[in-house]
Design goal:
Layout: E1 3-7, E2 11-12, H1 19-37, E3 41-49, H2 53-61, H3 66-83, E4 90-93, H4 97-112, E5 116-126, E6 131-133, E7 151-160, H5 166-175, E8 180-181, H6 183-192, E9 200-201, E10 203-205, E11 214-215, E12 218-223, H7 225-230, H8 232-235, H9 243-248, E13 252-257, H10 261-274, E14 282-286, E15 289-291, H11 301-313, H12 315-325, E16 332-334, H13 336-366, H14 377-382, H15 389-405, H16 409-430, H17 432-435, H18 442-462, H19 468-477, H20 535-539, E17 543-553, E18 561-566, E19 571-576, H21 584-587, E20 591-595, E21 601-603, E22 606-608, E23 611-612, E24 614-617, E25 620-623, E26 635-636
Parallel strand pairs: 1-3, 1-13, 2-3, 3-4, 8-14, 13-14, 15-16
Antiparallel strand pairs: 5-6, 5-7, 7-9, 10-12, 11-12, 17-18, 17-20, 17-26, 18-19, 20-23, 21-22, 24-25
Helix pairs in contact: 2-3, 11-12, 12-13, 12-16, 13-16, 13-18, 15-16, 15-18, 16-18, 18-19
Residues 9-12, 15, 20-21, 23-24, 49, 229-230, 232, 256-257, 259-260, 288-289, 296, 298 line the site of 5'-O-[(L-methionyl)-sulphamoyl]adenosine.
Length: 637
């Protein structure tokens, strides 16, 4: 049995819980649920970051003590996770004694081993971020995050000798390619590490900041909030020597947003190394949600409103949207129209209808119990040409496992929806309602109904980490009790005679007229027929299969997406005018067809080297993909 320990960032208690916090926590919850389903021993940690100047200032403004504000907002986070059905195993607060003890022990150890010294520091400080900024990071004299002027502060402080770990850290990251992932963040960190790494000021004089953990070796100082906060991952396990620490720490992975890459990818590994503790396995970094294409500052009420949509549309629909819409690692845009669009198409139409159709057929045509499958040659012959759902599911299972290993939730869901699509097509092509009218075709009907019931049972397991409430309803409709297990998700496990109940309205369709903008017609009236060309003319166009490695919006453009594609022998950037028809996450991993020998062109400042082929009619646009697997770079004629 494998062991798995996953942490979210601990959230600041000066903010209310919002979409950004919820996304990270949902991601961690879906991942731990998946690993638990796979049979691992798992532990998920979340909590709140309660010390520091930012909290003290917010509390003073609200006329509260910092502790009262921390109590109130920490409870608000906990309540949000309860309402969202997050299954965490521990909730740590940095004002708890169990945490303070570990922080003090760590500070003492680093002081005793000469890793910390007293020095003087002057620098540009942002009170919002609670950190000094280097000249290089400052934008027009302002904090790049808060866009507010920085203040010059000079003071005596204690420093952690971080600079001495620079060469070691670069080497470690270079030799552990997925230590920080996805790769773009690993590259970003290696980029930061090209400049000399400064020692880290890890104290704040009490004359300036009082709300923090006092240094064990100098009571005139409290520790810097990041030095305190990062240690939560260790203190929640009781610290080195504790049984829980020994068991789970070797398997720890962190999930964070890209905003806190530096503390997690640089300070934290150096701190662990200095304290002679093992490093984490992976830092999994996701992008930022934007609203209507705008970058949002951390404390905007719209993000709170976005999270409130979970009540309007259900937890499962909200979870599905955020996990499916964001390619893990890249930014994505959140909108109510987008959520309703996916709810109607993927959840109501594809999944909800399938569940309703299949359970109704089994109740109406087989008296509400799963019939036995007949594996006779005649049945197979009659179903000739219909792909085997068992095989499709096997591929889905492997694809989901691969995607989850890489934290690619959007790919895992796309793989499950390929199976949903295959089962829907299976109903259409086998037409069980017609078979039911011909008693001599009973064996075929039974086989089809068995396959449908078995497909739903497998979906009830595979969907459990992503849509926990709906997956439970599906399992219950098929008489499945007890905790689902991935090892049960193999074709043929469903017993004939299992009772089935009708399950309709899993995801009611939403009237999207009020939320969705009118679809633009993309077709133009066709004029004269274009002239005929020769085979030789056609041969001058180089068409190739290209695998989409990453898709992201082009800033300030509604229509364009920037695709990074693999052509087998090279990677290229191709800009495509398809943003109104495809979310970036829809294209990730797709094999499309491109014109590979087109002159390069600049579109909104991005150089495009090729063109993605797509067809359109009546406002619908579809990119061309290959219907069997071909390697990237394969020629298309
Ligand atoms: N307290 C620190 C973290 C310490 S961890 C040892 C902190 N807290 S925070 O409340 O500001 O939370 C930041 C995290 O919230 C981000 O890393 C990300 O996980 C999440 N998000 C906040 N806004 C976000 C978006 N707009 N989009 C996606 N996630 C974002 O930093």
């Amino acid at each position: 049995m494998a062991t798995f320990y996953l942490t979210t960032p601990i959230y600041y208690v000066n903010d209310r819980p919002h979409l950004g916090h919820a996304y990270t926590t949902i991601v961690a919850d879906a991942m731990t649920r998946y690993r638990r389903l796979a049979g691992d021993e798992v532990r998920m940690l979340t909590g709140t970051d309660e010390h520091g100047e930012k909290i003290a200032q917010a509390a003073a403004k609200a006329g509260m003590t910092p502790q009262a504000m921390a109590d109130q907002n920490s409870a608000a986070f906990r309540e949000t996770w309860r309402a969202l059905g997050i299954q965490y195993d521990d909730y740590i607060r940095t004002t708890e004694d169990r945490h303070k003890t570990v922080v003090r022990a760590m500070l003492q150890k680093l002081w005793d081993t000469g890793e910390i010294y007293l020095g003087t520091y002057g620098g540009h400080y942002c009170f919002g971020c609670e950190r000094f900024y280097t000249e290089k990071e400052i934008v027009d004299g302002k904090c790049p995050d808060h866009l507010r002027p920085l203040e010059w502060i000079e003071e005596q402080n204690y420093f952690f000798k971080m600079s001495k770990y620079q060469a070691w850290l670069v080497d470690y990251i270079e030799h552990h390619p997925d230590f920080i992932r996805p790769e773009r963040y690993r590259n970003e960190v290696l980029g930061f590490l090209r400049d000399p790494l400064q020692d880290l000021s890890i104290s704040r004089p009490k004359t300036r900041v009082e709300w923090g953990i006092e240094l064990p070796f100098d009571d005139k100082y409290v520790t810097y909030v990041w030095f305190d906060a990062l240690l939560n991952y260790v203190s929640a396990l009781g610290g080195p020597g504790d049984e829980r620490f020994e068991k789970f720490w070797p398997h720890v992975q962190h999930v964070t947003g890209k905003d806190i890459l530096k503390p997690h990818a640089i300070y934290w590994p150096c701190m662990l190394k200095a304290a002679e503790l093992p490093l984490y396995q992976h830092l999994n970094v996701h992008g930022y949600w934007t609203l209507g294409g705008h970058k949002i500052s951390k404390s905007i009420g719209n993000l709170v409103e976005a999270l409130a949509l979970k009540e309007k549309y259900s937890n499962d629909a909200f979870r599905y949207f955020v996990l499916r819409e964001m390619s893990f690692g890249l930014d994505a845009d959140f909108s109510e129209e987008g959520l309703v669009g996916r709810l109607n198409a993927d959840l109501a139409n594809d999944l909800g209808n399938l569940v309703s159709r299949a359970t109704t057929l089994i109740v109406n045509c087989a008296g509400g119990t799963v019939p036995p499958p007949h594996e006779s040659a005649a049945v197979f012959a009659a179903l000739r040409g219909v792909p085997s759902l068992a095989q499709v599911f096997e591929k889905t299972r492997t694809d989901v496992a691969r995607a989850m290993d890489a934290f690619a939730f959007h790919r895992a869901l796309a793989a499950i929806w390929e199976f949903v699509g295959a089962v829907n097509r299976y109903v259409d092509s086998t037409q069980p309602w017609a078979l039911a009218k011909e008693p001599e075709r009973r064996a075929q009907l039974d086989t089809v109904l068995y396959s449908l019931a078995e497909s739903l049972r497998l979906l009830g397991v595979a969907l459990a980490p992503f849509l926990p409430d709906s997956a439970l309803k599906i399992r219950q409709a098929l008489g499945q009790t007890g905790d689902p297990k991935l090892s049960d998700a193999t074709w043929g496990g469903l017993k004939a005679g299992t009772p089935v109940q009708k399950l309709s309205g899993l995801f009611p369709r939403i009237d999207d007229k009020k939320t969705a903008p009118a679809a633009a017609a993309t077709t133009k009236p066709v004029g004269e027929d274009p002239p005929r060309i020769t085979v030789a003319d056609f041969g001058t166009i180089e068409l190739r299969v290209a695998e989409v490695l990453a898709a992201e919006p082009v800033p300030k453009s509604k229509k364009l997406l920037k695709l990074t594609v693999d052509l087998g022998t090279e990677q290229r950037t191709v800009v495509a005018g398809i943003a109104e028809h495809y979310a970036p996450a829809d294209l990730d991993g797709k094999k499309v067809v491109i014109v590979a020998n087109l002159e390069p062109a600049k579109l909104m400042g991005v150089e495009s080297n090729g063109m993605v082929l797509a067809g359109s009619a009546d406002g619908t646009l579809a990119v061309l993909t290959v219907d069997r697997d071909l390697p990237p770079g394969a020629k298309v004629r």
